[in-house]
Amino acid sequence: MSEPAALLEADDVRLLVEIGFSALSRGLLAPAETIFAGVEAARPGSEAAGIGRALARLHGGAVDEAVGILRALPPSDAARAFLGLAVSRTGDRAEARAILAEVAQSAPGTPPAAMAQDLLAALA
């Protein structure tokens, strides 16, 4: 029997990620978590799957779980921007600001930097 990664092509995984984020945007947290779990099974260590799972937890009120998932990801600009968002929801505004300022500074002109700058403005 084939491994899950062999069953899904990169385009299939991208489509699943898009569907997962679409489910999140509609408040369908359980289906989104299931989709992201499938992506993670097919592509272990997938950043998109980790961020998606964390956002589902964050929107479901499990803020500390979201922070844990994001802290476990490799520290990319996107993962760190979402970590800043999640940390801000714990009430630790100082740590959130430090994370977001680092992203804004290290990745100028990118979507994660724009997100970080918007979040920093909201935390001001």
TrEMBL record:
<protein>
    <recommendedName>
        <fullName>Tetratricopeptide repeat protein</fullName>
    </recommendedName>
</protein>
<dbReference type="InterPro" id="IPR011990">
    <property type="entry name" value="TPR-like_helical_dom_sf"/>
</dbReference>
